[in-house]
Specification:
The structure holds 2 protein chains of 2 kinds. Chain A is mostly beta strands. Chain A contains no helices and 11 strands. In chain A, a hairpin with a 6-residue loop joins strand 4 and strand 5. Chain A is globular and about 45 Å long. Chain B is mainly beta. Chain B contains no helices and 11 strands. In chain B, the strands form 2 sheets. In chain B, strands 2, 4, 5, 6, 9, 10 and 11 form a 7-stranded mixed beta sheet that branches. In chain B, strand 5 and strand 6 form a beta hairpin. The chains are: A mainly beta, B mainly beta. Chains A and B meet through strand 4, strand 5 and strand 10 of A and strand 4, strand 5 and strand 10 of B.
Chain lengths: 113, 114
């Protein structure tokens, strides 16, 4: 039973436009959420995170939004660049008792020049 | 700034053989994690260490799997009597402690079982 879901396997956007990647979770005990980017033949690279006490966190072109009531988070990339083309994973960690991350299956983003 | 280092990058072995992977974490990180990733899936947690203590193990970690971190620095993951289903990417990550610390991943070891 998937506790972290990324329902879009792929997304294609034009260079310069906004990319919005979505993630839903089922467990209300998650308190920390992260986004990772993965290029082929490389490990996941940490992008940005958000704690459950916040609803938004920004870092340059990347913004993560958290809607706790909907159990939904999204990653916005503005403006999108061809180098952003990669697989993006959403991950979540429990409030206490475990340090493990639970990952979604990923969304492949393609940014077209 | 040295990231998480994993060796080897690729391992091909015959079914039934034992394999061992090594992970060197970021030097100031005292937490170390092992994950496994198969095609089309996100990474799945296997186990984690704080210093030399193994504090959490997943049910995915069968008795054929063992992980160690003897001196609280590098870690090894051994798989005994490998099976076809063990073919995957094995990822190591490390993090600091205190508050919300992101895990930083290495490039993984890809295991192929013939």
């Amino acid at each position: 039973d998937q506790q972290v879901k990324q329902n879009s396997p792929s997304l294609s956007v034009q260079e310069g436009r906004i990319s919005i990647l979505n993630c839903d979770y089922t467990n209300s005990m998650f308190d920390y959420f992260l986004w990772y980017k993965k290029y082929p033949a490389e490990g996941p690279t940490f992008l940005i995170s958000i704690s459950s006490i916040k609803d938004k966190n920004e870092d340059g072109r990347f913004t993560v939004f958290l809607n706790k009531s909907a159990k939904h988070l999204s990653l916005h990339i503005v403006p999108s660049q061809p180098g952003d083309s990669a697989v993006y994973f959403c991950a979540a960690r429990w409030l206490s008792g475990s340090e493990k991350l639970v990952f979604g299956k990923g969304t492949k983003l393609t940014v077209n020049p | 700034d040295t990231g998480v280092s994993q060796n080897p990058r690729h391992k091909i072995t015959k079914r039934g053989q034992n394999v061992t992977f090594r992970c060197d974490p970021i030097s100031e990180h005292n937490r170390l994690y092992w994950y496994r990733q198969t095609l089309g899936q996100g990474p799945e947690f296997l186990t984690y260490f704080q210093n030399e203590a193994q504090l959490e193990k997943s049910r995915l970690l069968s008795d054929r799997f063992s992980a160690e971190r003897p001196k609280g620095s590098f870690s090894t993951l051994e798989i005994q009597r490998t099976e076809q289903g063990d073919s995957a990417m094995y990822l190591c990550a490390s993090s600091g402690t205190g508050g919300h610390q992101p895990q930083h991943f290495g490039d993984g070891t890809r295991l192929s079982i013939l």
